[in-house]
Specification:
CATH class of the largest domain: Alpha Beta
Number of helices: 15
Strand order of the largest sheet: 6-4-3-2-1-14-15
Radius of gyration: 24 Å
CATH superfamily of the largest domain: Metallo-dependent phosphatases
Helix content: 25-40%
CATH architecture of the largest domain: 4-Layer Sandwich
Structural class: alpha/beta
CATH topology of the largest domain: Purple Acid Phosphatase, chain A, domain 2
Shape: elongated
Length: 462
């Protein structure tokens, strides 16, 4: 006898709820079919369902996402870095208290005190015919950030080593919910041959028809709900082995919306916005933003960053501010609207020579016009780099490029051998835009504060 098992999943939605009604509508159609045919099916989420760029996630600190997963009938979920390191310790600790699904993550634990009641390393699901399916969750080990927030994050391989043998003994099929990225998924497939299926994410890769890697099938659906995932497993009860396994990424673009879900999302948004109506300050004049100019609001934010991080110099890109502020009351909704990025302040140490190179690159047209996606940035374009704590003299060449001619700090030239502290956004410590920052030995991240927390303080001083 052969038994069919169906897994449906989402990954890296990042609170792009514009696709959620289609996704849930599709799942609901599949549920009806499987119930009618008495087939086993489960719904899973592979992390980064929540993203604080969206007012639903910001206003309800992720609990709105959990409510939507509950309403959709999810069975299992793991957490991604957007749940793990953009929320405060208390907010993450309480995030899944009302979850009607199991939350599995084998490489995360609280540093002090009891572990959250909802946190499990793995679980074993059993089909109606007794087939046992072990599902283990693993998330990207951003050790520095988790530690600052009060969490321990372990190597996913250490976690797998800890539970692998007992899963092999206790289950017929092993599935990994992996919010690790494509390269780690391949490494797991190479070294843990009893893993049958890896549902991948984090690096936003997309496998239309799954990828076989040794004994393991890898599947992934990109980001933002443009695709949903489905996997089909066939268990041969007589031979005690999988006789077939397939995986597909289904585009959501032309799927039918469930308008009840659309209404639920809209209701959730209104509920979240009510939480963001707290007044921050009142302005007696409007404050404009411009991505390629040095504006008052952008300069005050950069100055606040310099003060907050106690740095010699601060640098921030004008593209982090997305809209103007009008005269009158300014609420947390306004702050979130114009600065939605889950970006943290940080401080790095660089030599004067490195600082001069950062300043030079920061003034190039090539850098300011980059359309950046990811790394915490939720805007459109990097924009002009604003510096505080230093005086910069530039000139425009015949080619239209702005070139740095002289840089002084407190009236004196930059000492190329001296070490300076630079306050900036954590985004620049991840990528290759500024190697001097990315590879700096000494970095200090400020968490759980986000740039918009500093913006709120800066606006009060204008």
């Amino acid at each position: 006898m052969k038994e069919k098992i169906f897994l449906y999943y989402t990954s890296d939605l990042h609170s792009h709820f514009e696709n959620w009604p289609q996704i849930v509508g599709y799942f609901n159609q599949k549920k009806k079919k499987h119930i009618r045919k008495k087939e086993t099916f489960w719904l899973l989420d592979n992390g980064d369902h929540a993203d604080r760029f969206h007012p639903i996630t910001e206003g309800l600190m992720g609990k709105g996402n959990v409510e939507l997963l509950n309403a959709a009938g999810y069975d299992l979920a793991t957490l991604g870095n957007n749940e793990g390191i953009t929320l405060s310790y208390d907010d993450l600790y309480e995030l899944y208290n009302e979850a009607k699904f199991k939350v599995i993550c084998a490489n995360l634990s609280s540093v002090n005190g009891p572990q959250p009641d909802w946190l499990l390393p793995y679980t074993i699901k059993e089909t109606a015919l007794g087939t046992r399916v072990a599902v283990i969750g693993l998330t990207a080990p951003f050790e520095t950030f988790y530690r600052l927030l009060g969490w321990d994050i372990y190597s996913p391989y250490e976690a797998l080593d800890k539970y692998y043998d007992e899963m092999c003994e206790s289950a017929d099929i092993i599935v990994v919910l992996s919010h690790l990225g494509i390269h780690d998924d391949e490494e797991i497939a190479r070294n843990y041959p009893e893993v049958d299926l890896i549902i991948g994410g984090h690096t936003h890769h997309l496998f239309q028809n799954g990828e076989h890697y040794g004994n393991t099938l890898l599947t992934a659906v990109g980001k933002h709900g443009t695709h949903l995932g489905e996997a089909f497993l066939e268990w041969d009860h007589e031979n005690r082995q999988l006789s077939a396994k397939e995986a597909y990424a289904v585009t959501t673009e032309n799927l039918t919306k469930d308008y009840t879900v659309s209404a639920d999302v809209e209701e959730m948004k209104n509920k979240a916005l009510q939480h963001l109506q707290t007044n921050v300050t009142s302005l007696d004049r409007s404050l404009q933003v411009a991505w390629f100019k040095d504006t008052l609001l952008m300069r005050r934010l950069t100055e606040e960053l310099q003060e907050w991080t106690s740095s010699d110099v601060a640098m921030l890109n004008a593209g982090v501010l997305l809209d103007h502020l009008n005269t009158g009351d300014v609420t947390h909704e306004d702050i979130h609207r114009i600065c939605p990025h889950p970006m943290n302040p940080c401080k790095v140490e660089v030599t004067g020579d490195e600082l001069l190179e950062i300043i030079r690159v920061g003034h190039t047209k090539k850098l300011t016009e980059i359309r950046l996606k990811g790394l915490g940035f939720r805007g459109e374009i990097i924009g002009r780099m604003i510096f505080t704590g230093i005086e910069i003299s530039t000139s425009i060449g015949e080619d239209g490029e702005e070139r740095v001619r002289e840089v002084t700090i407190k009236g004196s030239p930059i000492d190329r051998e001296k070490v300076y502290s630079l306050g900036t956004a954590d985004t620049f410590t991840f990528g290759r835009l500024f190697p001097e920052i990315a590879y700096a030995k000494n970095k200090k991240y400020f968490m759980p504060e986000l740039l918009r927390d500093l913006l709120a303080q800066a606006i009060k001083k204008i």
